[in-house]
Amino acid sequence: MQAHPLIRMLDRGSTIFLVLLGAFAIAIPVLNLLVPATSSLHVSTYLVALLGKYICYGLLALSIDLIWGYVGILSLGHGAFFALGGYAMGMYLMRQIGTRGVYADPILPDFMVFLNWKELPFFWYGFQNFGYAMFMVLFVPGLLAFVFGWFAFRSRVTGVYLSIITQALTYALLLGFFRNNFGFGGNNGLTDFKDILGFNVQADGTRNALLVISCLMLAICFLICRAIVTSKFGKVLVAIRDAEARTRFMGYRVESYKLFVFTVSACMAGVAGALYVPQVGIINPSEFAPGNSIEAVIWVAVGGRGTLIGAVLGAFVVNYTKTFFTTGLLAPYWLFVLGGLFIGTTLFLPRGIVGTWTHWRAGVKEKSEARRSAEAEDGAIPTTGSPSTQPGAAE
Amino acid sequence: MPGVVINMRGLFDRIAVLILFAVLIVVGASGAATSALAGPYEEALPGFVADSFSDTATAIDQAAASGSALAAPLLQALKDQRLQFSAAEKKVLIKAPDGKFIDAATGQPFAGTVPADLSNVRLNNRLRNVLDAALGSLTLMAADPNKRYDAAQSVFKSRDAATLPALEKALAAEQNARVKAAMMQAKAAIAIISADAPAADKIAAIAVVRDRGDQDAMALLQTIPANAPPDVLAAVTEAKANIERNLALWATVQNLWYGLSLGSVLLLAAIGLAITFGVMGVINMAHGEMVMLGAYTTFVVQEVIRTRYPGLFDYSLTIALPLAFIVSGTVGIAIERSVIRFLYGRPLETLLATWGISLVLQQAVRAAFGPTNKEVGNPSWMSGAFDFGGILITYNRLWIIVFTGIVFVALLGMLRFTRLGLEMRAVTQNRSMAAAVGIRTARIDALTFGLGSGIAGIAGVALSQIDNVSPNLGQGYIIDSFMVVVFGGVGNLWGTLVGALTLGIANKFLEPFAGAVLAKIAILVFIILFIQKRPRGMFALKGRAIEA
């Protein structure tokens, strides 16, 4: 007897998460737009943009959790896919500026006029079309992940080596995008956006709409991830994570499984980047910095890897801490805190927040059940060894 | 090409002015003793007072022939229209650029009252030619061979036919082979551009210039017009091809040298990592910060020396080396004992934890020393450069290559021949067996990590000489270092050596075609592809143990 796939997919935690996310997506715009600014319940536009940013980070963390938590691929270059999605969106927004740029050129973005370019580079063609741009948001990170993964997984680059070359990948892109003649605005990146689909990017309504869309995309991606990890396919992924060689000997094509999940994850990171750009108003090469990608990994580690919800939660917690520390007098201490988080999490909280919580819950449940069964059949040995919800050392 | 000729003349003038100042300084130092005697130089001076062109011409030749150190500044002043005379008082004065007067007879500042009837010694075109020839011959006849060599070089570049008589005279007297060759080349250059030289002379001259074989020779040969006699043109074509070959050869040598230099820097940065990552299997993302600590140790040592013992400055690096080893090594041991020992067998977690450590260390250094670059000086034996054939070799790069070689050999020897090295290899190969025969593995772990960190520290001392000492110093090397270790093959110092040199040299050979940034990207992409072929690097260890 199998339960309906949708029901099996949505355990209680996931349902609570989705309901909370939905409530969040409704409450924030209402509190921002309908509650008067004088009220203590009013949410400022600044906060809306900030929360929108967190949601995008949450989506990025989710995409990392899918491959790190369930397949054991630690990508230290996921920021590259995030930034590529962001650049695709940025190029669309750039083309929407039209004649309102400083140089009022109807076709060329300002930086190209500034560099004395005469015509649009071929890779900018079509980005005035929203549909095409959205396609590229998925296609470019997906293609890069596919090509990179195809090379890497086929030749069985695993563990630390994979982490290091993903880092080299994002570093190479960082160097490239810093160049002025690369065609993406060099050091300054793309900025000064005006419209998205005809709506003003700066307007409150647009900001709230972007927040709601971000929540929606997070929910959709969460459901996709749940679907992947709860299916039979997902069981194979966990098998690969825990014993890759054994899984291969059982006849599974490990490379194909990894490649598929890696590509899906990169597309999700691209979507996160695309939603991030209109909300922060800029995309520049610093998004490719290896440090950014590593920071995103720590969000997942803090929240709890292999839990999906934990990744989103971790992104929220760490970024809220970051906002708290980087504004005001505490700013010089932020890197100490972040460094401490990296060290502390790996040493003292290897399961992360959610992982520790579920583990503790499982332990409590087991104990009470053991007690009950002990009371029932006086002296019987309780069953021990609940299935671990948590990965061990992924290598 | 008149523009080029004018520029060459300008260069010549500037060199002449430099020589003039040098002579002035010498004269000022030697004082009045040299100028007290009345010699041919003093006898020449009245010629300038006569205000007749023919007398001035005689006076110029006399002054130039006198061999006096005062002649060059005098003639230079004349050329610059700063030589003034008083017909009433029979005095010749040099008006210095700052408006003060110098007595031409003594070379000392003029003490008396400036005569009222001062006027410039006048020149016409014929006199200017005489003057140029005299000036050229003066420096060509200078006592210092380096000065003569420079003069010949500037004649080569100016190709001024007016200097030919002086050049021939100097050539006849020249003993120094190097200067003589330069003078021959200068003479050949004049012959090549002269319109009326016979074809045979030109061909001989072209052969001389060809043997010079550098960019200047090439530029000179470009000036030969296309309507020259066919045998001359044939000689030019042959000479050009020859020079091009020569230039290409030196360009290759230069790329190799730069590549070796970059490779040694990469090796220095990576060699500590080859121990912690390669031998211990610990991903130490804080490795770059160990390098940074070494660089800051150098800075602190130099600050102390600068304020307390300025005389020791040349030894600052020698003092900093052991200190940097101790500082970084101690921090490394502390990290190993406090964090890493809990994470053995979980490499991805060590990666995250050490990244956290690197952030903390960076911020700590920023808090202690400020976020800006720190000034670290080169000791005298590390500054400067010398010419080696067609390339310029700086001493600091040379010393870093030597130093890298020493570190590499010392480390290799330490792992091979000392007890600690033996125990390190034992622990990394088979931990439980090592423990069983009585090796204290925990202690060895700490010492190995300390050794890797300490070597990073002394790398920092060397890198402080060629890079900015800032809290971000380590970040710039960490990815490159990992690339080197991964490319070379983990657990193998020779692999690290070959990896670093290969990457360094490949980078420098790609740069002329692709530019620095694209070359770097190409290298990264190459390594990513290379890892596909050999996932364990160039010199991979074989066996089951490393598959874990």
UniProtKB/TrEMBL annotation, chain A:
Protein's membrane topology: Multi-pass membrane protein
UniProt-annotated location(s): Cell membrane
Residues passing through the membrane, by range: 16-35, 41-60, 67-89, 130-153, 160-178, 209-229, 256-276, 296-318, 330-349
Keywords: Cell membrane, Membrane, Transmembrane, Transmembrane helix
Chain intervals with Basic and acidic residues compositional bias: 366-375
Any one annotated GO CC term: plasma membrane
One Gene Ontology molecular-function label: branched-chain amino acid transmembrane transporter activity
Composition bias type Polar residues, residue spans: 383-395
CDD domains: TM_PBP1_LivM_like
Chain residue ranges for the region called Disordered: 366-395
Pfam families: BPD_transp_2 (PF02653)
InterPro entries attached to this UniProt entry: ABC_transp_permease (IPR001851), ABC_transptr_urea_perm_UrtC (IPR017778), LivM-like (IPR043428)
Source domain of life: Bacteria
Coiled-coil zones: none
UniProt-listed NCBIfam families: urea_trans_UrtC
Name of the protein in its database record: Urea ABC transporter permease subunit UrtC
Protein species of origin: Undibacter mobilis
High-level lineage: Bacteria, Pseudomonadati, Pseudomonadota, Alphaproteobacteria, Hyphomicrobiales
Automatic annotation (TrEMBL), chain B:
GO cellular component, one term: plasma membrane
Primary location class: membrane
A Gene Ontology biological process term: amino acid transport
Places the protein is found: Cell membrane
Keywords: Amino-acid transport, Cell membrane, Membrane, Transmembrane, Transmembrane helix, Transport
Membrane-related topology note: Multi-pass membrane protein
Entry annotated with the keyword Membrane: yes
InterPro entries, sorted: ABC_transp_permease, ABC_UrtB_bac, BCAA_transport_permease
Any GO molecular function: transmembrane transporter activity
Transmembrane feature ranges: 256-283, 315-335, 347-369, 389-415, 482-506, 512-531
Keyword Kinase: no
Pfam families cross-referenced by the UniProt entry: BPD_transp_2 (PF02653)
Entries under PANTHER family matching the protein: ABC TRANSPORTER PERMEASE PROTEIN (PTHR11795:SF447), BRANCHED-CHAIN AMINO ACID TRANSPORT SYSTEM PERMEASE PROTEIN LIVH (PTHR11795)
Record-linked NCBIfam families: urea_trans_UrtB (TIGR03409)
The family this protein is said to belong to: Belongs to the binding-protein-dependent transport system permease family. LivHM subfamily.
Official protein name in the record: Urea ABC transporter permease subunit UrtB
Source organism of the structure: Undibacter mobilis
Gene field: urtB
